Batch of 2 targets.
Target 1
Amino acid sequence: RRQRQMCIRDRTLPYTYLFEDNWPATGDYDMNDLVIGIQINNKKIGDKTESAKIIYTLYATGATKQIGVGFQLDGISASAVSDAEQGQTNAVIQLFSDAHSLLGSSERTPINTYKVTMTPVENEVTINFNTPIDGVINVNNFNLFIVTNGFDSDRRNEVHIAGYKGTDKAASSDNSTVDYVSNETGLMWALSIPSQAVSYTHLTLPT
């Protein structure tokens, strides 16, 4: 009789992403125009991943312009993912289009940058693969970015982590390389910081 394969949940290390919003111009580098936490929960059957849940927490936006957030799955074709953005080679998914609105504000003023004025928002998006993929979704192929002039713009202003490339719809600039590091200054516009929540419930302390 054929043995049933077990479903495995592969949960990644959480990361906090911090963005400057004025690419390709030099920023003020307070790194708070968009602050968001990401954790990925892969659902695997055997060696294949059939879906991935993106759990995000929007903490703050120090921007005075509309900030949207999306991600590209590098190396995974748009046709492999249900509800992926049209007109892209790799799968691109929009998380939200307006950080201020998501945090409960109708004004373009900083939120939660120097003190907590709004409750951070936690939400999740599930990616369903039309055919299960090899490997998992993690920091290596999860290409998070912000958009500062709207997702519907023909050549939209995307800001990515250094080392990751823009989507097919990203604007280009003579001042920046394809991996979002300034040719002139060597500066970048985004950071990703790994973090590990520590539980003290089962710790045995020395006496």
Target 2
Amino acid sequence: SVRVAADQRANHAVVNSAPLLADDRELPIAPYVLGAWLGDGHSASARITCETQEIPMFLEACGLLVEHRGGMLYSLKLPQGAPGGSVQAQLRQLGVLNDKHIPVTYLRASERQRRDLLAGLMDTDGTVVKGVGSCQFAVTSKRLADDVFELVVSLGYKCGRTTKRVKGRSEETSTCYILNFSTTDDV
């Protein structure tokens, strides 16, 4: 819609679209698990670093065996006899080992599956901005930031992007990509 501001300038507004509609997909890794691994997983293996016991409990609720390796490090394993070989083999098959991104099959999955994926990402690399109530996701991978942006807008949320310089980092990880969105939904 177009409204005219008091000083006669056009004031444009675009209404957010509804969430993208799609059917449930057969996905090799539960969406929450992939989201958590993309957020705090080790790029080259089926391991994840978690500051609290909450994330490992959620991962176990998704059917994984989560083995504490000491400190904040956990290994992700499939139950005995589960199809797919290993979590690491599934990550390799998705093409995300050493190349963290959201595969298109997950970006085009059902709304529920995409919400689970976003929940895993937000639980590991997200935060709620104090005093503002908006959700924020920050990552140093431009590709992953672009994918998360697409995920957020596919759920019908308006999403803003900013960048911030990270001191003491290598050239390829010296930029932090920050996504901000607001919702009253439980993410």
